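Submission sheet (multi-component)
Chains listed below:
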Amino acid sequence: MIEPNTPARHPNPAGVQRIAVMTSGGDAPGMNAAIRAVVRTAAFEGLEVMGVRRGFSGLHRGELKLIGPRDVANTIQRGGTILLTARSATWRTEEGRARGAQHLRDNGVGGLIVIGGDGSFHGAHLLEQEHGIPVIGVPGTIDNDLYGTDHTIGYFTAVETALDAVDKLRDTGASHERIFVIEVMGRHAGHIALDVAVAGGAEEVFIPEDDKPIEDVIEIVKASVQKGKTGSIVIVAEGVPGGAQGIGDAIQAGTGLETRVSILGHIQRGGTPVSSDRILASRLGEAAVHALMDGVSGAMIGRRGGDIIHTPLHETWEKRKDVNRDLYRCAKRLSV
Ligand code: F6P
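Outcome: structure written.
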């Protein structure tokens, strides 16, 4: 069947008239695409949107302002977040949350969409529990560490950015016949590290989910030189004890080979979002507005397979999304 040119309006049994949207925690490429999707879906459905600046930090200070479809023009391709973001200590206090809730009520806001990671969802969950304000989470973090969605907004771009750096470091590493130990982001999760290890052809990868004896890695690096490899790449997720520096020092001491350490850091959070992040953000932002109109609250919108699904907010941090262990095995086989 051919789809009509203009989709039908979504039903609004919850009778929501005005919603708010914020970005919170670490920024991630594609957050702007998600804000745009929220604002434009709301406009299509006849709802008003207030943008909250600086996440929960701004909310308890009352930094809210009406935003419309033209305010999000030319933002789909921009990294960072036009609403600004923060990690708020005040939101951890009951008074801070009460002030934020009052600002939402004073502005006639019937639901809040929070684009962020698990810390931000905690904050949203408390707002709902303590003040009865409907909240919906949209997963926005480069770490991809949220249960309830295959991928988080920003993850695909962060992997591309890290991979670009790994390719460049490989050029110089191979030319000097050095070992390069490269640290990627991922405080508690090895998703970025595993993807980058496979796509970057790494010899070894360290992730926080695994406890790997450094002695084994020293032997692997020594063996790779004996096999005639001109350089080796070792990927380390930042959450691994000792980080890349500790592992690099141990490899240099254990192999006697010239080793360099490169910590990629916040560069992985910036830049133009790749298409997969923009598409994910657009779909999740749209679904978040519809969820509020349906009367859903206290849930994160995610995508599993091709389906848009809802997961209770607390499950997003209580249940663990494991890394793809097949990727780990694949990286090992291909580094033979
Ligand atoms: O947003 C997730 C993340 O990028 C982690 O990978 C990293 O550990 C952390 O944020 C860094 O946070 P901050 O911006 O506070 O330095």
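Remark: The chain is about 40% helix and 15% strand.
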